[in-house]
Amino acid sequence: MATMKPLVTDLVSTINHVPSNFIRPLGDRPDQLQLQSTIHDFIPIIDLQGLNSSNRSQVIQKIEHACQNYGFFQIVNHGVPEGVVANMMKVSKEFFNLPESERMKNYSDDPLKTTRLSTSFNLKTEKVSNWRDYLRLHCHPLEDYVHEWPSNPPSFREDVAEYSKQVRKLALRLLEAISESLGLEKNYINKALGKHGQHLAINYYPPCPEPELTYGLPAHADPNVITILLQNDVVGLQVLKDGKWITINPVPNTFIVNIGDQIQVISNDRYKSVLHRALVNNEKERMSIPTFYCPSPDAIIKPAPQLIDNDHPAQYKEFDYNEYYKKFWNRGLSKETCVDMFKA
Ligand SMILES: O=C(O)CCC(=O)C(=O)O
């Protein structure tokens, strides 16, 4: 039976309609017209070149404005070499083009596994499935994980390791800039994350015969510190801004950065972790590759004391990231963000 295929990548060639387990209830379906419109709102584009020059404070101000008003921004001149990005995209596509039996060697439903291929979000907890397959990898420290990663395509480990190293450097620069934008010392967030963690997902959204009935990923906020997202040239990502979904047009050579729940906590609600979602379409495969920069599981997260005063009492209690991360995966994606469960 067609629905026996665990991955949408393999299911898609066997069906003409979306199977019932993917169909969203009426009132919770994507607005395809908005996606097809050629006019899309935009989120700020910030040139990071200025971070290393006398313009640093202007760039920091732009970051502050974007974090306060959007929770999202795009970056250009980010320092990750084009060739490294191109190899990452190429090897990711090659992975999803491998025969099913080869890909399935990496399959697991357990969200706590550090290397796994899976589908939807969390099959164990969700009621409706999503039109997405994903390969999720832990990648910091690299030497602890690289041996678990797929060895096919043959260049996979090398290409993904190089990409992860480069994106980590970028993440650390961004965390310094975000710390400064909050009036904290440059390495405040860096020091708050324990030994640090870094996960990467390769999201693969095959064309969908009825994209108006289902999501690639429904609305959710990210549980980590910051997310740095690379996408191919197919539109699909939407961000909630002032109660309205805005579509982000793919721009070559940019990354999309968003604030995760842990910055919302550290900033004591000055910056908000914003809901976003991914729509699918009936023509083209879409790929997105988010790097989730995160605390190590043992890191203790709390609002920065410098951002607490009589007018701004602490909004969150202290917790360890491990507890947070487990809650995120067990509760399913939801419009009520996980961070509300850690309110003071
Ligand atoms: O595909 C996208 O653009 C969004 C991906 C995303 O939000 C996620 O993987 O958490």
Walk me through the structure.
The protein starts with 7 loop residues before the first helix and ends in a 13-residue tail after the last helix. The protein is of the alpha+beta class and 344 residues long. The longest helix has 26 residues, at 156-181. The radius of gyration is 19 Å and the shape is globular. Helix 3 (56-69) packs across helix 7 (156-181) and helix 4 (82-97) packs across helix 7. Helix 3 links the parallel strand 1 (45-47) and strand 2. It has helices at residues 8-11, 32-36, 56-69, 82-97, 100-103, 142-145, 156-181, 188-192, 261-266, 321-331, and strands at residues 45-47, 72-76, 115-119, 133-138, 197-205, 217-220, 226-231, 237-241, 244-247, 255-259, 276-278, 286-294, 300-301, 319-320. It has a single domain, classed as Sandwich (Jelly Rolls). The strands form three sheets. An eight-stranded mixed beta sheet has the order 1-2-10-7-12-5-4-3. A four-stranded antiparallel beta sheet has the order 6-11-8-9, with no helix packed on it. A two-stranded antiparallel ribbon has the order 13-14. 2-oxoglutaric acid is lined by residues 201, 203, 217, 222, 229, 231, 236-237, 276, 278, 288, 290.
Q: Can you summarize this structure?
A:
Helices cover 28% and strands 20% of the residues. With 344 residues, it is an alpha+beta fold.
Keywords:
eight-stranded mixed sheet, binds 2-oxoglutaric acid, alpha+beta, four-stranded antiparallel sheet, 344 residues, Jelly Rolls
